[in-house]
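Sample A.
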Amino acid sequence: MKKSNLLGVGILGVIVGLALASSSARADYSFDNDVPADIKAQMIADMQFIGTVQGTTASPLHQQIFGNADGPTYTKFFNDRVQSVGMSDCGMGNAVACVNAGFDSSKMWLTENFIKFSHPQIARIMVMFHESRHTEDNNDNWPHATCPSPFLDPSGNEIKSIWTGYSLAGEPGCDVTPFGSYGSSMIMLKNIQKFCTNCTDKVKMDAGLYADDQFKRIIDSTAVQQITTDLYSN
């Protein structure tokens, strides 16, 4: 009898464990049928990863936008904003993803550019959190600014999309505030690079690389100084 009871407890423990694992793997947002199965699985895995991030601290701008630099904070931020994910050809072939606020501001659309270009996990997460910022109707969905034309870095090189390689000059692919989609997502990644305690060196290196690239899209001098003071001055 004792052996039987122990076996029953053991089986119950396995069942509970599987239920908890299934619950933690379940996304709080839905996917349209046209989202490829591997992309759906990849996105769920990416969000599971970001949910594990642990940070020692967070910069002041990060605290204003997200709060703590940790997994539960990031997960809640995203789940509070994005309710569904679908496929679209938005952005006239140049976009990686988008939010169509006039149609459904809680829905994120992925484009073929999200699928056909290969980028590190932290870069995909950057895109997802970029778009989640665009769902905020109370902030007019954080519209982008038009990039200068020509759009050159300090060395005189043309600034292009790190994701697609497309030219950004004259395109609505810049921001004039640290709090928009480009600013907030790069602040998130830079905090992960600097403060994550359980990230691999590769994750932190990728986070810094993509954060520094997105920083180029902030074209207002005051906003640039705010971010520089927040994350680059020490």
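Sample B, a different protein:
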Amino acid sequence: MTNTTFIHSSAVVDGNVEIGDGTKVWHFCHVLSGSAIGSDCVLGQNVMVGPDVRIGDRCKLQNNVSVYNGVELEDDVFCGPSCVFTNVLTPRAFVERKDEFLPTIVRKGATIGANATVICGTTIGRYAMIGAGAVVTRDVPDHQLVIGSPARAIGWVSIAGERLDDSLVCPRTGEIYRRAGDGLTLVE
């Protein structure tokens, strides 16, 4: 941590934690041991991270987000207020299942809407967008827009977050996309 990192006095940051330059950790957050948070991130009020979680650069976690062991956020990920990650498929209070945590990866630039739930063992693709309140139960391809419970695809979004029509041209930037595997990619 450097002098450009801000940690509110009510936040708790355990030992053996890395927090990058310019990151802000706001009221009542808890960052658990072994976690690493990149540069220029914002952790809103009441965010919990860890233990042993990796968060990339320029991520924004809005209020009341918990990022549990097994979850990795790449660079530029947005987590809306009160979105939820899980790390065990079949939890029971009386059965220890820490050896059953399933990894969840949120790729670069993805957005997870407010109150969405991401079930463990899934990957959210680059620049994908998860609608508010959605329940993600399977992988989401790059640039896909999903909504509902369970989440279902309803279209595509650009890097700028604009919904794409059949032309796959971003209305904001003019960038052109093409199909690539299950998802989209930017035409260079």
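Observation for Sample B: Residues 6-186 form a domain with the UDP N-Acetylglucosamine Acyltransferase; domain 1 fold (CATH 2.160.10.10).
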